[in-house]
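During the second half of the funding period, the structural biology subgroup turned its attention to how the target accommodates small molecules. The most pressing case was iron/sulfur cluster, which had performed well in the primary screen but for which no bound structure existed. We therefore specified the complex as follows and requested a full 3D prediction, including the ligand pose.
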Amino acid sequence: MNAYIITRDNLRTWIDALIRDYTLVAPVREEEKVSLFKPVGSFTEIDLNYTNSTISPKGWLFPQTEEMFFFFTSDNQINLEDACKPGTTILFGLRPCDVKGIIALDPVFNGTYQDCYYQMRRQNTILVCLCCTRVERHCFCNSMGGGPTNGEGADLLLTEMEDGYGIEVLTSRGEELVNKYHQLFAVDGDNRVSKTRDEMGKKLASQFSRKVDISGIKEFLDQHFELPYWNELAQRCLGCGICTFICPTCHCFDIFDQSPDGESGVRSRCWDSCMFSHFTRMAGGHNPRPTKKERIRNRFLHKLKYHRDRYNLDGCVGCGRCINKCPVNIDIRQIIADLQEVARYDQLPLS
Amino acid sequence: MTNCRSHNPLRPFPATIIKIIDETPDVKTFQMVFDDPEVMENFKQKPGQVAQISVFGVGEATISITSSPTRKGLLEFSVKKVGMLTSALHRLEPGCKVGIRGPYGNHFPYEKMKGKDLLFIGGGIGLAPLRALIDFVLAEENRKDYGNIEIIYGARSVDDLCFKYDILERWPQMPGTKVYTTIDRAEQGWEGHVGFVPAYLEEINPTPKNKYAITCGPPIMIKFVLQALEKMGFSDDQVITTLEMKMKCGIGKCGRCNIGSKYVCLDGPVFYLSQLKQLPPEF
Amino acid sequence: MKVQENLRDIARKLLVNKEATLVIGYAPGSEVSRVIPAFIRKEEEVDHLIWNPLCVNNLAKYLLDYNQEPGKVAVVVKGCDSRAIVRLIQDNQIPREKIIILGIPCPGLLDPETVASRLNPNTQILSASLNEQAFSIQTEEGIFTFSRNESLLEKCRSCEHHTPVIADFMLGEEIPPANRVDPFEKVKKLEDLPVKDRSDYWDKQFQRCLRCYACRNVCPACTCRECVFDQAEPCWIAKANNLSENTAFHLIRAFHVAGRCVDCGECDRVCPVNIPLTLLNRKILKDIKDLFNVPTPGTNLNELPPLGSFTNSDPDEFM
Ligand SMILES: Cc1cc2nc3c(=O)[nH]c(=O)nc-3n(C[C@H](O)[C@H](O)[C@H](O)COP(=O)(O)OP(=O)(O)OC[C@H]3O[C@@H](n4cnc5c(N)ncnc54)[C@H](O)[C@@H]3O)c2cc1C
Ligand code: SF4
Ligand code: SF4
Ligand code: SF4
Ligand code: SF4
Ligand code: FES
């Protein structure tokens, strides 16, 4: 598809135009160490120099709390009214791993039962990916089939260049976003953009602090459900919601009603976490995953096996967020490495 | 642009409770009809499937459809009062509005069961899903497709027996049908069998020949029933049971009801024992 | 590294002599700037135990997971963590005789982010030392120095008890408090702002709370068997994540630990979106100190929490 180049000045004009014509959601530095995707009112609010947002941008397709429908009772009739009315949104400046995270979520909300809330937002959202220019110490996207300059799944792919930004058009939806403001773009006649991106890709490939080998992990886990290793990990886990809430591919939710008067109200859903003890606790108290061990095992099997079993996609895109934020250093890269050891030696060599 | 209104699986259809039957001190059976006759017409469940029942303002719960699909024009749900939603449901009266969405899940393999004898083993509220299949095979239009029917059913006490009219009066009168009822401890006025279901099963000692055994009940009962069936020579492909996991969405999205990579809401709740043995022991 | 050797020696003795069945301490994490809580049961594993200026986790709360342990459990604590032990004993969460407290007088910790920004994540710390001005860390790749001024963890700047307030074994020499920054400096600054600004400040913070409950789960003062935030009926705060519910959560949390918060800083550390929980806790701590003239909770085993006891001298202007 086509590629264009836009100067820094024109990028500013373009983004301000997009903000005028659409809802534009982009990375914003909220606090010194907190970066979040938020709707912005002008180019100056955006921080394109971020490495990875603190919370993944999945919330723009699958909000932490989402009203599903309102209900009203009148004359002993129940009336329902849908709550979801999204306009077109541009998710601007997504990193490649977060695009991949969205691709991993798609089949969950697709299938026999179409999740119309997700689908509506997804169909009305244009993904503008921004290639990375540095690799954080927790990143391992290149081990999970992605890469810092691999924008697969996005509508447009931006690459920072010396004199501006290169823009590669990946879909017709992306093309529209360029065509509409075509006077701001110069056609990239001699493949400068893809060359720059390739070079950046090569440069960054050597910056990863750890290479993770996931080969054979799923096959090993197919055969081994019960491993003392999970006990070991669980001992220190706090059973909090950090890792699941910030993860781009976690999608568990709860459904709840709110009704001040019992006559009318709203049914909503909100993120839930398989690391919480009541997640699977049934009426009467039976809990099929009663301890932190079963819960942490479920999380990692979900990432490394179940998601593959169901959708033939990895459940982890290597964004490194959980590694960065877990208060007790439960590091999925280390888990994968440890599982390789367990598979090879039948136990961890050190213990 | 996708429209929520046309296909939103998370949005229930309004329905009305038309009749409530007190089964036991904590179980009631609710007869419900959709407010929109077209929805009623198009709701085509299979025996073993479930629905999500809403009490608006309180929430939803997964409940087996206990009426047979051969019974048109209404749906029956038998509900044990255990928590918030089920208690709210128990407080409702005929005429009250609820919501229903479904049918969800797989179903009993009634096609494969054709030409076979069927042995049902139920305990407590566990008879609810079995009842849909029992009434399905006993329905006039289907009866000829199936062999003899045996039903072993037990509860803690006479009071706790669900579907008393069915087990004590209706089913025993059906052709080719035997019903064995038991209660855990002896009680005045009860002349039937006394003892736990698994022990009663061993006493009756049914032959596995040309037969499917279908069981549902409290986990501890199921455990011993499965052992007893194995002892009697039932193969893992002849034994069918249903599983329970906590549910919210019912449609494989909310990620809560998984056992390994299977979702009970989509891939269950009906499992052959042979399938059950392939699952990680996390239920 | 003398502390580390002492620690291993004592841990080994405790396990070999079966005086303890479990030692909870620190081990190296997946990268140089991190440590992990370690649960040591075997003599052979004792050498995993480490002590260095990155040992930030408060291990006290793990004791609750081992209430049913047949033998005694030994736990490594720093000064701030030791107040949590006192807290747990006072709350009858752990019997004093079930635990062996391995106290480490802690001169202050290094900010892990600062360390991470300078060291190769895949190296190992060989030794660490500290003088008046700087930490020095030796790895396979050389010696790195970090000035105290720039790299000391924020909470350690105002540390009240470098030396644990309770211990069965003290693994190093006592460290008196020195050059302490006023712990209430930031609180006072905020107090001076107009109400509107304070309210805007907290709205902005609470708005982004994920309600992941890490702050609660890590807290040694949060020990309820069923937390109000987990109760479905009655439902104290809705699951909905919005400013109003989040604010309710934060106020309830702060008040539930009021007078019992030992100011260990763990909630603040674990928060994935950097909500300054220390500031909130210290505001309450400051008010309690002003009202009742009491030490920081957990300082003294015999001093009951001010909000959980009554004396005739308690202020009563509100009556
Ligand atoms: C496949 C299947 C079929 C079922 N069929 C029946 C039936 O025919 N009759 C009957 O009385 N009960 C049935 N149950 C159990 C019933 O779903 C629970 O008892 C009910 O959800 C409890 O809801 P509550 O709000 O009263 O309890 P609470 O403890 O207040 O539960 C809160 C919420 O958690 C979820 N939940 C809690 N326990 C369960 C559970 N055991 N299973 C699924 N979700 C749960 C529900 O979403 C519920 O609304 C079935 C469960 C499953 C999985
Ligand atoms: S792995 Fe870490 S982030 Fe996840 S629940 Fe456990 S302690 Fe929290
Ligand atoms: S599991 Fe961790 S590294 Fe993987 S996608 Fe989720 S947050 Fe990122
Ligand atoms: S740790 Fe932070 S994000 Fe999580 S609940 Fe506490 S304040 Fe909110
Ligand atoms: S509230 Fe925070 S600082 Fe206070 S004891 Fe709990 S975790 Fe420590
Ligand atoms: S109930 Fe939501 S995935 Fe099964």
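Two results from this model are relevant to the next phase. Residues A 246-249, 303, 316-322, 332 surround iron/sulfur cluster (ligand 3) (CB under 6 Å). The first strand of chain B starts at residue 13 and ends at 24.
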